[in-house]
Amino acid sequence: MIKFPFLKVLAVALVIMGCSATIAGGAAQAEAAEPCDLALGAKIFSKCAACHTFDTSGIHGAGPNLNSIIGKPSGSSSGFPYSEAMQAFQRLWTESELDSFLQQPMAAIPGTTMAFGGLAKPHQRAAVICYLAQGAD
Ligand code: HEC
Known about the structure:
Blueprint: H1 3-31, H2 38-48, H3 84-89, H4 95-103, H5 105-108, H6 122-133
Helix pairs in contact: 2-6, 4-6
The structure holds heme C.
């Protein structure tokens, strides 16, 4: 019976340690850029690749080619038939703009023809964005 209260204390201690580690980690990340998980980014991009090419060919799939997408104006790849919603969006694809778009594309740009539910997990979005930031060449 003594075992249980001890385990409870241990569990609480571990939770507290976990939280302070997260807080410390968050502060460190604010200073240094998050490390880029390219392997995860490539894995996540395989979902995008159903519709998007990511190479220097400039050839589009069901979605526009995504080479050099970071910093590019939205809806500006030549030869791709963007939706009216995307044409009206008129933003630069900064990393933070991509992050909010990819979380829930159809909510971020109502009327977009990108039929993709989104990436709920921040680390998955960060990984695919840094993967795209490497460029295809
Ligand atoms: C089911 C097909 C499909 C999937 C899957 C998909 N997209 Fe798209 N994507 C599109 C289409 C279609 C558009 C054009 C949308 C429009 O014109 O409204 C688009 C547009 C975009 C744009 C804007 C491009 C520009 O030139 O302005 C980005 C960025 C983008 N997608 C990234 C991604 C990423 C990253 C993923 C994977 C996490 C992904 N997409 C998954 C179909 C898809």
